[in-house]
Amino acid sequence: MNLLQVEHVSKRFAQHTALDDVSLAVPRGSVYGLLGPNGAGKTTLIRIINRITAPDTGRVLFDGREIRPEDIRRFGYLPEERGLYKKMKVGEQALFFARLKGLSRRDATERLRTWFERFGIEAWWDKRVEELSKGMAQKVQFIVTVLHRPELLIFDEPFSGFDPINANLLKEEILALRDAGATVIFSTHNMASVEEVCDHITLIDKSHDILSGRVADIRRSHGDNLFDVTWRGEAAALENAVRGRCELLDRTDDGSAYRTARIRIDRNDGVRGVLAALNEAVEIRSFSEVIPSMNDIFIRAVNGSL
Question: Which of 39, 112, 177, 199 could be 30's S-S partner, Cβ–Cβ 3.0 to 4.6 Å?
Answer without folding.
Answer: 199
